[in-house]
Amino acid sequence: MSVILRVRDLAVAYGHIEAVKGITFHLDSGEITTLVGANGAGKSTTLLALSGLVRPVRGQILFEDEDITRLPPHEIVRRGIVQVAEGRAILTTLTVRENLDLGAYTRKDKSGIANSLEQVFQLFPRLKDRAGQMAGNLSGGEQQMLAIGRALMAKPRLLLLDEPSMGLAPVLAQEIFRTLKAINQNGLPIFLVEQNVRQALKIARHGYVIETGRIVLADSGENLLHDPAVIEAYLGG
Length: 237
Description:
- 38% of the residues lie in helices and 27% in strands.
- By secondary structure, it is of the alpha/beta class.
- Strand 9 (206-211) and strand 10 (214-220) form a beta hairpin.
- Helix 3 packs parallel to helix 6 (140-152).
- It is globular, with a radius of gyration of 17 Å.
């Protein structure tokens, strides 16, 4: 299995507070990898660093062997790293279709964009039914579908997701996780940051556990799901 992204000794600080304290990990091509941990452990900050939205104080990020550590966010998107932000960040005063069209703003291939749109509608039929509706009128689950669909319109080479199940009813969260598995089965690597540790480890090939800015465990998702320390800390004993 080839490695699509390598992170070496990554540290991120907000003022004098170091939120991420020198973490090293990698993502394999074609796999779902998850980073799990408690609220405030450094998960979202790690994603922001990968997306170029916060600048590391040290360390290196290599995407397909290119050093992207200092690239601005729009250049990182152009290289194929696309993030679905925590809280969805959809544009509520635009229609569903307009939100999806914005996802393809870096692309010029009209036929390819049309194919991507059809694939998104196949993945999320409800978005097709509501294409002309204002995005702000969608349910929470539909808004999360729209956020993922908009990211897919960019034709990513690596998809980053920050807490996609947050605020969703359990049945809708299950649907989102099933959809992520389906997206990954088409070959797209996914890096999933998630507080729902059980569900994240169930769908991930590989997982990392982060505590107070440091990675403390790394193993297959299956092994972490049955690790006594993970069970005690995150799975209710």
